[in-house]
Sequence to fold (604 residues):
Amino acid sequence: MMPLVQVSGLSKKFRGNAVVDDLSFSVNEGDVYGFLGQNGAGKSTTIRMLLTLITPSSGNIELFGMNLQKERKKILKQIGAVIEKPDLYKYLSGYENLSLFARMSGIRPVKEDLIRQLELVGIADRAKDKVRTYSQGMKQRLGIAVALIHDPRLIILDEPTNGLDPQGIADMRNLILHLSRHLHKTIIVSSHLLNEIEQISTRMLIIDKGKKMVEGEVSSLIDPAKTIVEAEVNDPAAAAVLVKSTRWAAHLRSTTPGSLVFILSKNQVPDLNRDLVHLGISILSIQAKNSLEAYFLSLTGSKQHVAAFTD
Amino acid sequence: MWQLLQIELFKIFRKSRTYISFGAIGAMVIIIQAALKYDGRSYIEFLVGGLKDSLEIPYANILNGYFVCFIILNLLLIHIPLLIALVAGDSIAGEANMGTLRLIVSKPVSRTQLMLVKFLATLIYTALLLIWLAFISLALSILFFGTNDILIARNDALEIIRANDVMWRYLAAFAFATVALSTVAALAFLLSVFAENSIGPIVLTISIVIVFTLLSEMQIPLYDRTIKPFLFTSHMLAWKGFFYTKVDAAGSAIPGTIENLGAIMKSFFVLMAYIAGFVSSAIIIFNRKDILS
Fold:
């Protein structure tokens, strides 16, 4: 199956500094694709390149089997996006904003279409009010309505839960799941909030300092067979030297200032513990984490970049 | 294209800032009209200078609607660029500041088309502002002061244009003023591309117009030859040329004539070249710009 989004060797430099560095990934039809990275990792720059807001320094982007540079208009007709904050015309009403952006997207919706869209995101009762009177959550919902009004195949949401209260975050999560499961949309969601991505994504990409760390199925990334084990030790550098001469060397993922980080199956933890003691390493604590967050931190906390995660 | 233009005009005319210009012009015109209604004679005395001692000046005839409109245009057209900059300087920078620029640029519309539509909308705003000025300065002045021949002061001479030879000159003058003010709009539009806050391009446009106007008005021979012919501000006041007629052997104005149409046309083409240059530059720069706002 041809991917809906195919990015290869994408780079962007600002004044010589690489913000996105040789990034490649693909999104399949029907994916809820989590795009993860810490603040400044290059997520927004990548998304802006997908939307032609930023010109790549090098690399290639194909969407729906078409080259983005050559078929820009055709491609953008099939994309709906909320980029960072949902900034809209504050001096216009929600209804006017939606109508205006619908026409810019190349459609001529009738009043009922617009109202139905506002109902979908739950702000139809405030349709006639100026956007300047909306709460952050309502603006976010209106931004989603704007992204959806032309019935796009691909929806790109850049940090969609920013500034939302817990109820707003839950509503957004449910909306994304609704769009995916019931309307069969392909969705790219960028976030630095891992638990959000963990709950809604089917596949994901983790980037750090503009480089790809891993890409794969979320279920495999939180596979218990790939448990993150952090052993807090007295002298991590010396301990790492000792570990590298043992069978655990293949499992050692990184060395932090206070600990050694391994990736292994959870039932191997007692063996690891025993062998470290036998090596004469003073263990202060040993902790097994199998959440996506632990995995993410182990990757982005280390200096080395790992190869693509195998599904 | 038409749909995009409708959207741009809708956005411009839903902003309260847009109406500041219309309100300001309306207020200034009425203030001038009221002052001339109350004491127009003093103004005419000031205008004719020493001639009032050697000639019998028909003050009541001179102070008519056409004459008042001419005075208003002389006083106001130099200041209207400031009002034009308010909207033109906001066209791109205002969108960047609001955060809507990234949304409109990610829509299936080419950046060139987007820029052309935005500039076209700015031109329509400029034209409407001039039509408004024409309406209240000409129509209201005719209503309050009536019509008669118009007295034009040129250097040390006075020129009289017959009442039936005036209206077409005003139409031509307003059309030319639209082109002149569109040059200012194009400059503000270009500067707007560089900024993410509309204050910057508005203030910079006004500053450039003031500095260029001062240079245009300076009586320095070196600048007359080297700088002035190339400043757009030197050409913006060429609308006055429509009120300068050819004269016959007796020194009377010949109806339907323009003294130096060539100079007006030259100014027109210089201004058009400036507009084309500013707008083309804005489009090229915007097409290469990374939208980071």
Chain B has one domain: 2-287. The mean pLDDT of chain B is 88.
